[in-house]
Amino acid sequence: MSESDEQLLARILKGDEEAFAALYRRRQGPIYRFALHMTRNRTIAEDVTQEVFLALLENGRSFNASCGTLLSFLYGIARNRVLKRIQKQWRDEPVDDAEQYASDNDVFHDFTRGEIIERVRRAVVSLPPAYREAVVLCDLENASYEEAALALECPVGTVRSRLSRGRMILAHKLAKYKVYGSKCV
Amino acid sequence: MNEDPVRDILRALAEEDAGIEASPQIEVRLRKNFNSWKRRRIIRRTSPWVLTAASIVLVFAFANRKETQPPATRSAPVEQTVASLPEPIAPIKPLPQTTRSRNSTAAGMPESFEIVTEFFPLMDPAPAFERGQLLRVELPASAMQMVGLPVREEYLARPIHADVLVGEEGLPRAIRFVKIEKE
Q: Is B92 on the interface with A (CB under 8 A)?
């Protein structure tokens, strides 16, 4: 039976490199995708992923398993890093490598589906950050409301309302794109 | 407006992106960072102990030197070239390396000899080292764990001897652990 995240963290904090590699391989995907969906930028998403696991080394002892899962702890770190980048991104020139991001997927899917998916991505990233992070965590990464609440540092009720509001905004945006009714989705 | 179609579309996006992962270079970079974090952590944990112990020994050695002639021999001057200093990433070998010395005692008493480990660097990167002193100190066995040597739980609090190589500027450069055996 594979070790839990918490068991791996305990080994990491004792200096076990293989435990660190195992935890990284298990959790880098969700963290990377969260950062990618929040920013639409692979470079930022990779930087954030790296920073999250470095922060885990430095602050791993502050993780309290009774407060939530390690994944939500990691999401919390990722969220803080992403928000800093988003604020910086708004101050500086907008960064967007959507073409590069979309290109990998077009190889495997027909154009119409790829186009629709791309529009959904654009719609998600255009949401205000507070709604975006709730949608990305709960709808795209299947995080529970409790996990999302811990990561977003707000009550579960707030997660629910932000999620609902985020979906409503998305519905308006996607209706404008005429995405509804497509047989591809 | 109904949320269900949005959820369906988001589900499709989630499925589409489910396999997306960070590039393998990130893991390589993180592993490198992990190793330097581990070394920093060892130095951070060990240095306060060693500095405290070294300070105590220095004070005693200095006081002893004033009172008695010839001066106390608990610390020995050491000269070493930079090239012969231990590498920052020393291989960790729990096994004893060499037998250092035999101490004759009074007639009828058993002889004692010392088993020492290799030196473990305490500074990374180690600055140039030309001259320093080797100080014998007493530390809890947990100090061995901090440089990566295995110690059984029940022995963690036991006092052990160690030689600390202190540079001219007073900073501890390296440490080795000593086991005193009686024949």
A: no
